[in-house]
Design goal:
globular, single chain, alpha+beta, six-stranded mixed sheet, 20% strand, five-stranded antiparallel sheet, 40 helices
Length: 1184
């Protein structure tokens, strides 16, 4: 029968349940149970297998697990396939650190094959690590054995054969490289790995389709570039690496030709690009001032609006849009141009001209002495522009407009004249192509100046010494106007952390002129929650994005299947390994026996069918978002078993963090599906925001504030974390908690105590106020309710198998809690299937509160009273609470799988051998409409509103609940509300410890309300009418304005004007009668008498006395049934003595007391507060 329930020990219990699931193969039983049932398809967004999990990863994984558990319990077959993202720069950077490499050249010189194998090994090791952490989260997937993955990692790159056991149980022997290439296939099971040959080959299929539609091309563009990484970054990647940076910006003057002592005033935050200046862009519609500086009579031209413009004034006060992006403390407020010129001797305005008048003016560049500025066709030379040089292009040009028609050059920051360097900026490059300007591209792959740049050659653009050299040379040439530290948001490599530069690159692109097709697919998807506005964000990205750069000049990643005839420029895209083998004329033997990665695939040559020339594969690897974007096809056998693919496609759900993924994974999914099949790859997208610390700041590994998963799991508990994740509104950032890097802790685990993670990071104290609240409001009340039932049921030998008392024959409070339970189950189906776990858990939290603080508390005496075989009322209470707890364990199983399992095991499988072995093998409970009584629920809800208001008024008037009060009066907006409260008046009296509840038509004799206009909200609406509102609104009265107190809006006519008021538009004041306190909510108004008679005060002291005795019982660890003797010493508190004497029968009955005596107490007594007095108490267990 039931096992005794003691301390919750949530974390220890979670470990016990993990062991139970493993020993009983519960997950495998679930899959067998649902095989062949209707399918529910989920696609996992692959997590990068490159580091251990943090608490930010656990949010999304909790969503994924909860929805899969729900749909499994509702009778659906699922794939349960986790994904690992494997390829790309993020892995390469970490492997470079491990190997001590500092440059790309070191990778080449030490062997690309060795480097690629090390990348594979790292991925396998961290896939094993993340698998273990995910299992600890309770995330049910078809997991690989972590030890098998680690074994494969040991053998990667070796010719030795190894035997592995797949998740399906199948044993396979082969070289580790070949085994790794097939991980996640349908025959073996397990997680999918994006480095698998099936994944890579399916991307080849996509690229072949793009090629056949003429969308693949080789292009030159200025792209963000990492010198250390030696790689370009696409638009989608740059947005994820922005940081607040401080650079030295410079105001510099360009001398105008044929205009003595006249200059263009230029400003830039990237001084190194001045070496490559080609033109100066203006806005022809702006007005420009001609300003004479008194210092040297130099004349400057710049935008008129910029002279007094308060530069970054808002950012100086408010920061740059994120909590961590506040204005740097060591950077002073920026000066206006007027201030700069005043400090340099003053100025005068000579005239104002239109920008259009300046177009065509020629100037001398600041670094025209450099060979690159003098090179025909620019640097590198463009054969179509050999008649021009950088110097010959030095003109004022129209800066043009973007695709929306907005001018590129605007007033504000800067000078309204933009230094244009087509070899160093993306917008500049586009403008240069439009105007036929040469490009001067100064930087090589390592981010250093190339030959042709004089003393700058070999210098790194992001080295702080480089701008200093620029300033020095500008000063020598008398071109330097001013230098200042300038804070701004600047792109960084999102993996190395280095600042990015903009560099002219030779890359491969997909022409995205078919974006309207992708938009049509996007509009067919349900984006939730709607407040994130996901569809609109995605459509805006699709509208604004440039062509998709799909190449990376790196080593570890998808081998782009593009073979080029370098002599003619012809290229082909190969769509499969079978096609490649058929076309290969050289090098196939080098690839055979290896995965289709560098360097092995680089040896394969094709023959150009047009010329007979050899074609070589481009050395580039693919953009890693190709890897993740193809998974709706690669993981469901699109290339190998289309019939099986069609069973699971499209997915019912994908879910990932929203802020960045609409331009990353979601974009890749939508684009690739549109090209592959022309249909949406998923039906619903659930987006969620960021996990931050409790102060709303990001958590970083670098400063020790990032919370590792096991730190949180073993200190807060996984069920607590899961409830926190699922109950949170996904449209807002989750403020998780704080990690104290200075306070190390030892964590207890099943494997023994640990003081650091597997990676060697010390485990530190993690604190979380949201977690504390969840335990306080949800988990502890739920556990206490369960413990209350089990421990009394054991005492009374309750038999859950005996005949049920019909619900109709049970007391109203039983029928109410069962009805409430049905409403919860109805909301579970509605909310969860609308992908709104937060809505369901909000209702579940309220239900647990009702169960604990209303049903159980109000029914304790039904459980306490002595056993009687004919006591059907007591049996009804047991049966009701048992049914509620069992049903609740099932309904909450997807959310808190560990605690639900512990409850279910004790409540059900401890006595019913025919029941499913696990709560997760049960069907999800459905609403029983026959038990749902909406009218009963309504009555109880009205009574609960009165009780809530009553408690609020007690708090405000400092009247403790144990102090009885004389009367509560109420008035309601509707008769239905009043009738409901009257029907439960006795309950309200008991709950609030009030002697009398009285129905009234109104409470005008006890309370009145005043209304004043809220000028902050009404000012913007009714500016000129505020004077009239001040005078007339207070005279309108509660009869008209009363709905505002209830959260409703009001429209009325004042002085011939229609005034529409919202609740926030008025300030409500309350005037109350003496000895009464009042409150109202949802159409219910109450007043409570606070006047105390001596009789009421005595009863209050008796209740205090009972509470203190109960606390002593708890501290003595007495059993529920133990009877006691009570001894007290009131000292000089005669009023307490009198109260205890008059209420002795009540006190003994409430505390299971056999004896109540006044006596001189020994030293083991406890001094307690009774009313306003101090009394000594002692109890001892009575002899049986």
């Amino acid at each position: 029968m039931f096992q005794k329930v003691t301390d919750a020990s949530f974390i220890k219990g979670e470990h016990e349940i993990l062991k139970f699931w493993e020993e009983n193969q519960t997950f495998d039983q679930l899959r067998r149970k649902n095989q062949g049932k209707p399918k529910w398809s989920f696609i996992d967004g692959p997590m990068t297998a490159n580091n251990p999990m943090g608490v930010h990863h656990a949010w999304g994984r909790t969503y994924k697990d909860a929805y899969q558990r729900y749909y499994a319990m509702t009778g659906h077959e699922l794939r349960f396939q986790n994904g690992f993202d494997c390829q790309g720069l993020w892995v390469e950077v970490e492997v470079e650190k491990e190997l001590g490499y500092g440059t790309k050249q070191e990778v080449v010189s030490h062997g690309i094959d060795k480097f690629v194998n090390e990348c594979k090994k790292r991925v396998l090791r961290f896939a094993a690590r993340q698998t273990e952490q995910s299992v600890r989260l309770g995330y049910w997937m078809d997991w690989d054995n972590p030890d098998e993955l680690r074994k494969l990692a040991e053998y990667v790159g070796k010719d030795t054969e190894v035997t592995m056991t797949a998740p399906s149980g199948k044993q396979i022997t082969d070289k580790a490289d070949m085994l790794v290439s097939r991980l996640g296939n349908s025959e073996w099971g397990g997680s999918y790995f994006t480095f698998s040959t099936e994944n890579n080959e399916t991307i080849w299929t996509f690229l072949k389709k793009c090629f056949e539609r003429g969308k693949v091309y080789r292009g030159h563009d200025v792209m963000p570039w990492s010198g250390r990484g030696g790689s370009a970054y696409s638009q989608m990647e740059v947005a994820d690496g922005r940081k607040l940076s401080v650079h030295k910006s410079v105001f510099v003057r360009f001398p105008l030709k044929d205009r003595e002592k006249e200059y263009l005033l230029i400003w830039t935050t990237t001084p190194w690009t001045l070496t490559s200046n080609v033109a100066a862009a203006i806005n022809p519609d702006l007005e420009y001032v001609k300003l004479r500086a008194k210092k040297d009579d130099a004349v400057y031209y710049f935008a008129k609006d910029n002279l007094e413009y308060q530069r970054l004034s808002r950012e100086f006060k408010e920061g740059f849009g994120r909590p961590e992006w506040s204005w740097p403390k060591d950077v002073p407020k920026l000066k206006t141009l007027a201030q700069i010129f005043k400090e340099q001797g003053g100025y005068e305005i000579l005239e104002t001209i239109k920008g259009a008048q300046m177009v065509g003016w020629e100037y001398t560049g600041p670094f025209d002495d450099l060979p690159a500025q003098q090179a025909p066709g620019g640097h590198p030379s463009d054969e179509t522009l050999l008649d021009q040089t950088g110097i010959s292009c030095h003109k004022v040009v129209d800066g043009g407009r973007d695709f929306k028609g907005n001018p590129h050059v605007v007033a504000g920051e800067g000078t309204g004249i933009v230094h244009t360097a087509p070899g160093c900026g993306d917008v500049d490059h586009q403008l240069g192509k439009q105007l036929g300007l040469v490009a001067i591209a100064p930087l090589g792959e390592d981010g250093r100046f190339e030959e042709g740049f004089g003393e700058f050659t070999g210098k790194e653009a992001i080295d702080p010494a480089t701008p200093e050299l620029v300033f020095e040379r500008l000063k020598e040439k008398d071109l330097l106007v001013s230098v200042e530290p300038y804070p701004h948001i600047y792109p960084h490599c999102w993996r190395t952390g280095d600042e990015l530069i903009f560099r002219l690159v030779d890359e491969w692109f997909i022409n995205m002129d078919w974006r309207e097709e992708i938009k049509d697919v996007t509009r067919q998807i349900d984006w939730v929650p709607s407040s994130i506005d996901g569809e609109q964000h995605e459509l805006e990205w699709l509208t604004n994005m440039r062509d998709w750069m799909v190449s990376k000049k790196r080593f570890w990643g998808l081998a782009l299947p593009i073979w080029v005839d370098e002599e003619t420029g012809d290229f082909e895209v190969i769509g499969s390994l079978a096609e490649l083998k058929e076309r290969a004329v050289e090098g196939w033997e080098a690839l055979e026996g290896h995965t289709p990665h560098r360097p092995w695939i680089d040896a394969v040559k094709l023959k150009n069918p047009k010329t007979g020339n050899l074609m070589s594969r481009i050395p580039d690897v693919g953009n890693p978002w190709l890897d993740a974007g193809i998974v709706p096809f690669s993981t469901m056998q699109y290339n190998t078993n289309q019939a099986e693919w069609e069973k699971w496609y499209p997915a019912d759900l994908v879910t990932e963090c929203f802020p960045g993924q609409f331009r990353n994974w979601f974009y890749a999914l939508l684009s690739m599906a549109t090209m592959m099949d022309g249909t949406p790859p998923f039906k619903t997208l659930l987006g969620y925001r960021l996990v931050l610390n409790e102060e709303g700041k990001p958590m970083h590994k670098s400063d020790g504030t990032a919370i590792w998963f096991e730190e949180a799991a073993e200190q807060l508990g996984v069920d607590t974390m899961r409830w926190m994740y699922l109950a949170h509104n996904p449209a807002s950032d989750l403020r998780f908690g704080m990690r104290n890097p200075e306070q190390h802790v030892t964590l207890e685990t099943p494997e023994g105590p640990i003081s650091e993670t597997r990676e060697g990071t010390p485990t530190c104290l993690v604190e979380s106020k949201p977690a504390d609240e969840i335990r306080r409001q949800v988990l502890i009340p739920l556990w206490n309710s369960y413990a209350f039932f089990v421990n009394y049921a054991r005492l009374d030998e309750f038999d859950p198998a005996q005949d049920r008392i019909p619900v109709a024959d049970r007391p109203e409070i039983d029928r109410w809690i069962l009805s409430n339970l049905q409403a919860l189950l109805a909301s579970a189906k509605t909310e969860i299937e609308a992908y709104n776990f937060a809505g369901f858990l909000k209702n579940a939290t309220a239900f647990i509160d009702d169960l604990s603080n209303w049903y159980i508390r109000r029914n304790r005496r039904r459980f306490w009273r002595s056993q009687d075989a004919n006591d059907t009322d007591k049996l009804a209470a047991y049966q009701t609470l048992f049914e509620v707890l069992v049903t609740l364990s099932k309904a909450l199983a997807p959310s808190i799988p560990f605690l639900s399992e512990r409850m279910y095991q004790n409540l059900v499988t401890s006595w019913d051998q025919s029941a499913p072995q696990s709560v997760h093998l049960c069907d999800f409970p459905e609403c029983d409409a026959s038990l749902l009584d909406e009218e009963l629920n309504f009555r109880a809800a009205q009574a609960q509103i009165v009780v809530k208001l009553g408690h609020k008024l007690r708090d405000e008037s400092n009247q403790r609940v144990r102090q009885p009060l004389a009367e509560l009066r109420f008035a309601c907006q509707t008769t239905q509300q009043s009738d409901a409260i009257v029907s439960l008046a006795t309950t309200i009296e008991e709950e609030l410890n009030i002697k009398l509840v009285t129905r009234c038509e109104n409470l005008d004799d006890l309370v009145s309300y005043t209304y004043k206009p809220n000028l902050k909200t009404l000012g913007p609406k009714y500016g000129k009418l505020l004077g009239m509102l001040r005078q007339q609104l207070p005279e309108v009265g509660d009869e008209v304005l009363g709905p505002l107190r209830r959260g409703e809006s009001v429209s009325l006519d004042l002085a011939g004007n229609q005034i529409d008021l919202e609740p926030d538009d008025v300030l409500v004041g309350t005037e109350q009668a003496a000895d009464w306190v009042c409150a109202d909510e949802q159409g219910i108004q109450i007043a409570v008498s606070t006047k105390l008679t001596p009789e009421l005060e005595q009863e209050g002291m008796a209740r205090d006395f009972v509470r203190q005795i109960q606390q002593l019982r708890k501290e003595a660890d007495l059993e529920i049934e133990d009877r006691i003797k009570i001894f007290f010493n009131p000292a000089d508190a005669t009023e307490v003595k009198e109260a205890v004497t008059n209420w002795s029968d009540y006190i003994l009955g409430e505390t299971l007391g056999d004896q109540l005596e006044q006596s001189e107490l020994a030293g083991d007594s406890k001094e307690v507060s009774i009313g306003n007095s101090k009394v000594s108490l002692r109890i001892e267990k009575a002899s049986s």
